Amino acid sequence: MTSAPAFPIYPHRHLLGIKDLSPGDIELLLDRAEKAVAISRQPEKKTSTLRGRTQINLFYESSTRTQSSFELAGKRLGADVMNMSVASSSVKKGETLIDTAMTLNAMRPDILIIRHSSAGAAALLAQKVGCAVVNAGDGAHEHPTQALLDALTIRRAKGRIGRLTVAICGDILHSRVARSNIILLNALGAAVRVVAPSTLLPSGIRDMGVTVYNSMAEGLKGVDVVMMLRLQRERMAGAMVPSVREYFRYFGLDSEKLKAANDGALVMHPGPMNRGVEIASEIADGPQSVIQEQVEMGVAVRMAVMEALLDPRRDPEGRA
Ligand code: NCD
């Protein structure tokens, strides 16, 4: 794929969060991602758009799907991709994020992809390095490429985002996926609901432009998309749910609860899934599930983001 002049120049140097993007920026990335889907479906998947560019994946939290998705996306664009495995690096020896960033920066990468357990880590890195930075998840703050891939999946299945009703269900409190999705879906004109027990809702959630429900039967009534979230037990200090069995009974998506949604409602999950905790297997593998499509769209969206950020029509400082 060449950097088609047909696409306007993307106006940001980094992708730190959906909150920095206008609806037009979001649509531009989704349109670019459509082209990347076509490339990934060809037998010959390698292009030369980012040939000679260096991409470093700096993952401070373990991740399978997001890291491999960014790696494949870079490789399909022809970039040289390096994975910094934090577990075996000097980070374990006590080096700070900034020192690690400065060291990597001195190697002159063109793009850094970072995942970190602290909110704001990606923005901090962006201030310190001379290359483009992509936030691959920072604490419970944002996960912009996840929201973009979810939007692409919805747009391809339903033909639009505006005027759809989307229910985001489960552990909203710990979820950067929920935050980024709420911002994006609102920006594109969807009606957003959150469905969760009150212990799993952040304070101030009502200020984010969502309608809050504490019952699946009510919250799923008439929705076009049901987005399930993983119960992030590793981030829970105390017992926020009585038991997993109890949680599944009230908040797990099964065929009975899904009946409340519109016919043909999409079922989504960012993964990794806890089958039998937030979602029943029969639903995860059922006809309404687009969970595998989400994974496919993830590679395409990450290709689109990296191409847009490293557009050769920008000057070396990254300005348009
Ligand atoms: C999500 C994440 O890491 O925020 N997963 C992902 O990116 N594939 C959601 C989660 O961990 O539950």
From TrEMBL:
One of its GO terms (cellular component) is cytosol. It comes from the Bacteria. Signal peptide: none annotated. It holds the Pfam family OTCace. Its EC number is 2.1.3.2. It catalyses: carbamoyl phosphate + L-aspartate = N-carbamoyl-L-aspartate + phosphate + H(+). GO terms for biological process: 'de novo' pyrimidine nucleobase biosynthetic process; 'de novo' UMP biosynthetic process; amino acid metabolic process. InterPro entries: Asp/Orn_carbamoyltranf_P-bd (IPR006132), Asp/Orn_carbamoylTrfase (IPR006130), Asp/Orn_carbamoylTrfase_sf (IPR036901), Asp_carbamoyltransf (IPR002082), Asp_carbamoyltransf_Asp/Orn-bd (IPR006131). Residues 164-308 form the Aspartate/ornithine carbamoyltransferase Asp/Orn-binding domain. L-aspartate binds at residues 93, 176, 230. One of its GO terms (molecular function) is aspartate carbamoyltransferase activity. Carbamoyl phosphate binds at residues 65-66, 115, 143, 146, 271-272. Belongs to the aspartate/ornithine carbamoyltransferase superfamily. ATCase family. Reversibly catalyzes the transfer of the carbamoyl group from carbamoyl phosphate (CP) to the N(epsilon) atom of ornithine (ORN) to produce L-citrulline. This is Aspartate carbamoyltransferase. The gene is pyrB.
